[in-house]
């Protein structure tokens, strides 16, 4: 703003009034001259040539005591009595003198004496954009729960700018973002008040904090501005279920794994926060059948261990559902699938089951006679099932496997001889091919049944006896004896005289005790008529059929 404009303004207002008229109309309304200057101009800045504008004689100003009388305590303006100029004496801050946006006017009285004249001059202090907007705080923080409905408003801090009119706050702007927009509302004295409006739902798991910048601009040229950082902290809502880190957890464990053996750790994570993300694990089947599973689960770590009682022969595969639930007020959960395969360990002995047994085998049974039939089983699998059976090779028995290998027959390898061995304790050994080897034995007892396969055998052959003459008739004179290697009836020997021999019937005067073989004479012998005689004794066993043998007895 140059002095040109000021002088033009002053010309327009350049009237001369007398004092009486001024008093009558009031000072302000009838200021004779109106000047305008911008605030903050330097001391000495010329406002206008007031003497000239009032039509005063410049040369007499000094004599007439040309001066300014101000209503304010401070002296903002002075006049120069040499040239009649009105100039700024003290820097003026419009905002210090005037409030609000209305025109800021300062009234001055210009006095000259001889004769006394008082002139009214108004200086308008024009606002200069000398203030920046400012916010009361440097930042503002909001905590907004995720899933808050769009449309919700949040009042923002209002910026202040003491400048007037166009130099005061005109606009607010917000950094571009997907979730919020800005609205302003007029609130009388406070002017524009900015509001943050939620446009789109927040998702904490996507963006937990939003940083925005709110800018307040005044209308000056150039414009001045202020910014405030707006932080939006998105608070968590339990809107995410836990997620297992694997679609399926698989582990193989030996059936003899001791209690406490570590299997695996189920790991579920939850993208929520705090309690909403803390996971508690449980064995789902526990809810239905308590402690039915041979596993323990640590509810806080998800670690699965062996509780005990694994048995491959009972169950080979466990399909477990581990429930992973978060600790949110309204808990969300998922299931993690675990497959535990049990591996066989050679922990079972083969079993020998005798299905039929002939425990008494006759001596004359031909080789290959079946003594026993047996089934051999092993609860283990693989090589732990495969079983080999045997009997000691020195025994006259052998095992013949059936084509399927599941059963065996015990047969004789040779003729048995009761007279050599009448009882056999046969140890059958079944061994599997596992490591370590598991084996079991079964003893079966076989009695060899006698058959009459031995003839009686006399203790001597022939017998020779010497008998004195004139022996007493009816008295036993000697005896024969025969044994039989068979048993029982087959060994029960009876004696008789062989009377079928042709010739003199010597035997007619002899008698034999059929039970003990004692021979007695029915008459006395006479040496002179009979020096020697001979006969046959037959020993017969009681077998069916019976066997017999004879012996010659010579009597002298
Ligand atoms: C405002 O945010 C900006 C950028 O994020 C940062 O540089 C500045 O330090 C922040 N101001 C305050 C007061 O936090
Ligand atoms: C569990 O899974 C999460 C997500 O996959 C991973 O960050 C964390 O390290 C895992 N914890 C363990 C103990 O493996
Ligand atoms: C679960 O595991 C943690 C960490 O190893 C342990 O402190 C806690 O005692 C375990 N809980 C149970 C019930 O074993
Ligand atoms: C056969 O076994 C029985 C009992 O099991 C026993 O008394 C007998 O002495 C055994 N015989 C032989 C020859 O080992
Ligand atoms: C006695 O034994 C002989 C020879 O062993 C035999 O030839 C004979 O027939 C037998 N006699 C009787 C009666 O058995």
Summarize the structure.
The protein is mainly beta and 556 residues long. The chain is 5% helix and 42% strand.
Just give the CATH class of the largest domain.
Mainly Beta
Structural class: mainly beta
- The CATH homologous superfamily of the largest domain is named Cadherins
- Distance from first to last alpha carbon: 190 Å
**Strand segment count:** 40
Radius of gyration: 70 Å
- The rough form would be described as rod-shaped
- Helical residue percent band: under 10%
| Domain tally | 5
Ions, cofactors, ligands: which are bound? 2-acetamido-2-deoxy-beta-D-glucopyranose
User: What is the mean predicted local confidence, pLDDT?
Assistant: 86
- Write the CATH architecture name of the largest domain: Sandwich
Jot down its keywords.
556 residues; mainly beta; Immunoglobulin-like; 5 domains; 4-stranded mixed β-sheet; 5% helix; rod-shaped; disordered N terminus; binds 2-acetamido-2-deoxy-beta-D-glucopyranose
Description:
The chain folds into five domains: 124 residues, Cadherins (Immunoglobulin-like); 97 residues, Sandwich (Immunoglobulin-like), CATH 2.60.40.60; 99 residues, Cadherins (Immunoglobulin-like, Sandwich), CATH 2.60.40; 99 residues, Immunoglobulin-like (Sandwich); 99 residues, Immunoglobulin-like. It is 5% helix and 42% strand. The chain is built from four helices and 40 strands. Strand 37 and strand 38 form a beta hairpin. The N terminus is likely disordered. Bound molecules: 2-acetamido-2-deoxy-beta-D-glucopyranose (5 copies).
């Amino acid at each position: 703003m140059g002095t040109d404009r000021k002088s033009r303004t002053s010309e327009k207002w350049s009237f001369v009034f007398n004092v009486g008229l001024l008093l009558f109309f009031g000072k302000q309304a009838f200021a004779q001259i109106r000047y305008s200057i911008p605030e903050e101009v330097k001391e000495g800045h010329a406002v206008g040539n007031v003497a000239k504008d009032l039509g005063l004689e410049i040369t007499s100003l000094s004599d007439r005591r040309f001066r300014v009388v101000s209503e304010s305590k401070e002296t903002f303006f002075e006049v120069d009595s040499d040239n009649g100029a009105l100039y700024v004496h003290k820097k003026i801050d419009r905002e210090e003198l005037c409030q609000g946006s209305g025109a800021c006017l300062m009234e001055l009285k210009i006095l000259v004496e001889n004769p006394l004249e008082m002139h009214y001059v108004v200086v308008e202090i024009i606002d200069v954009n000398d203030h920046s907007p400012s916010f009361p705080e440097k930042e503002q923080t909001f905590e907004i729960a995720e899933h808050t409905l769009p449309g919700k408003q949040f009042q923002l801090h209002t910026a202040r700018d003491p400048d007037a009119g166009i130099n005061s706050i005109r606009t607010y702007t917000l950094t571009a973002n997907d979730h919020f927009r800005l609205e302003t509302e007029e609130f009388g004295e406070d002017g524009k008040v900015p509001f943050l409006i939620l446009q789109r739902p927040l998702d904490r798991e996507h963006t937990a904090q939003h940083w925005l910048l709110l800018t307040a601009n005044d209308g000056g040229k150039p414009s001045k501005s202020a910014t405030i950082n707006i932080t939006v902290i998105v608070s968590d809502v339990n809107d995410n279920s836990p997620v297992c880190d694997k679609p399926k957890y698989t582990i193989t464990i030996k059936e003899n794994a001791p209690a406490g053996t570590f299997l695996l750790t189920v790991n579920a994570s939850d993208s929520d926060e705090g309690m909403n993300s803390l996971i508690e694990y449980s064995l789902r089947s526990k809810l239905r059948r308590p402690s039915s599973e041979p596993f323990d689960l640590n509810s806080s770590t998800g670690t699965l261990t062996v509780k005990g009682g694994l048995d491959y022969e009972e169950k080979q595969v466990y399909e477990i559902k581990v429930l992973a639930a978060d600790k949110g007020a309204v808990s969300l959960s998922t299931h993690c699938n675990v497959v535990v395969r049990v591996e066989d360990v050679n922990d079972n002995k083969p079993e020998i089951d005798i299905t039929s047994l002939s425990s008494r085998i006759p001596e004359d049974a031909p080789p290959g006679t079946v003594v026993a039939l047996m089934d051999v089983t092993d609860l283990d699998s693989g090589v732990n099932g495969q079983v080999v059976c045997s009997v000691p090779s020195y025994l006259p028995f052998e095992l013949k496997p059936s084509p399927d290998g599941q059963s065996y027959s015990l047969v004789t390898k040779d003729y048995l001889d009761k007279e050599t061995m009448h009882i056999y304790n046969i140890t059958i050994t079944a061994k599997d091919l596992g490591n370590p080897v598991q084996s079991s034995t079964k003893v079966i007892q076989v009695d060899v049944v006698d058959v009459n396969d031995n003839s009686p055998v006399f203790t001597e052959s022939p017998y020779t006896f010497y008998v004195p003459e004139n022996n007493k008739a009816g008295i036993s004179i000697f005896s024969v004896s025969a044994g039989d290697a068979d048993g029982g009836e087959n060994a029960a020997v009876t004696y008789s005289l062989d009377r079928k021999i042709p010739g003199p019937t010597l035997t007619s005067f002899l008698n034999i005790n059929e039970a003990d073989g004692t021979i007695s004479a029915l008459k006395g012998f006479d040496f002179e008529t009979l020096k020697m005689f001979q006969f046959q004794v037959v020993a017969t066993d009681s077998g069916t059929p019976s066997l017999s043998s004879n012996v010659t007895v010579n009597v002298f």
